[in-house]
Hints:
Elements: H1 3-23, E1 29-32, E2 40-45, E3 50-54, E4 56-58, E5 66-72, H2 74-84, E6 89-90, E7 96-98, E8 102-105, E9 115-119, E10 132-141, E11 145-146, E12 152-159, E13 161-168, E14 180-183, E15 191-194, E16 197-205, E17 212-218, E18 224-230, E19 239-244, E20 247-254, E21 260-267, E22 271-276, E23 279-285, E24 293-295, E25 297-300, E26 306-314, H3 320-324, E27 337-341, E28 350-351, E29 361-363, E30 368-374
Parallel strand pairs: 1-11, 2-12, 6-10
Antiparallel strand pairs: 1-4, 3-9, 5-8, 5-10, 7-9, 10-12, 13-26, 13-30, 14-25, 14-29, 15-24, 16-21, 16-26, 17-18, 17-25, 18-19, 19-20, 21-22, 22-23, 26-27, 28-29
Amino acid sequence: MSIRNFIYYGLLSVLMLSCKQVYEPLANGIYFGEAVNENLKKVTIEENGAQTSVYVSLASPMDYDVTAEIGVNSSVLDEYNKKHGTNYKLLPDSYYSLKSNQCIVKAGELSSSMIDIDIKAFDDNLEMAEKYAIPLKLQEASDVDILQPSSSIILLCDKMIVTKVIYSSQGGATGASPTMSYEIQDGEKPIEDLLSWTIEFLVYNESFSLNKHILRFDGLDGKANTFARFGQHSFPENQFQLTLLNLPIHAVTLCEKKKWYHVAVTCDGASVKLYLNGELDVIASHPEPNTKISWKKLAFAIGNPGALSEARIWNVARTQAEIANNMYAVNPESEGLISYWKMNEGEGTLIHDYTKNGRHMNLLKSCIWKDQKFPPEK
């Protein structure tokens, strides 16, 4: 054999070996079927409790039954809370039961049957404003590997909240004709020097028309530095718009009438983010980076005929996970929460601030309260 042929066949052998390594099939593995894209599953706990289920899947079928053991693992929840800055608590085991702790994938199949999980109705022994979860993890499996990225799933247990919301059919503007407002009096400390902050509220519109205000926060100079409305002139009437220090920020998502939206605006001194129903909608650069903001007068308006609920101000920029997991209620003693109006009074003209800061708003228009469930029915 010539030197040239020797080199040729040697290189060919190397390439064949490399291809064998690249295309060799991966070992089979088992995982939670619903945890492929996200290791979370939300469950709404209604007045009669709730039922949900989980199942496991294989990467490819086997010619024999595969059994997997599942169990509750608190460290999974601890890791999630640490990563996302949340405070989910482990739901006491007296409030739920697993039909079985074994999932069996039959020979020739890819997925197991459903394992039902019954969750009891929450009662007064559980704190209403606290968030609870059931963290499940694959503990053992017969003759296959456990695929770690999808080896756990957290059941986020959201209690159905029955409350009252404030409703008006009049509409109005937060500047000239607000629905409710609070103004810091002489000698009282204003909300000031906030580099990072978050504003949240729930809003419902029966219908839309242009230039319908929703909030206006005035600075120490008496001028609006934070302003929001639906339907800025020449823009769609169902488009939410925030203006911060004269920078207009328009939502990408257009809102639908007769549907509840959770709106959250966060600022970290460098960027401003708008979230709708817990989903990031817009990111904008801060108009004046590292500028601290102050508010002396706070006003909300039900601009379009509709309702408001759960308005909050924080002195921190909330994360997406914190926003999405606490849209309908929070603990009034939460760190960073500096004003919290549930707007659930049901009577009277005082809208209570549930934080210790006591910035109670005065109701300035004739409104009614309506019964409402959160999460809202779709």
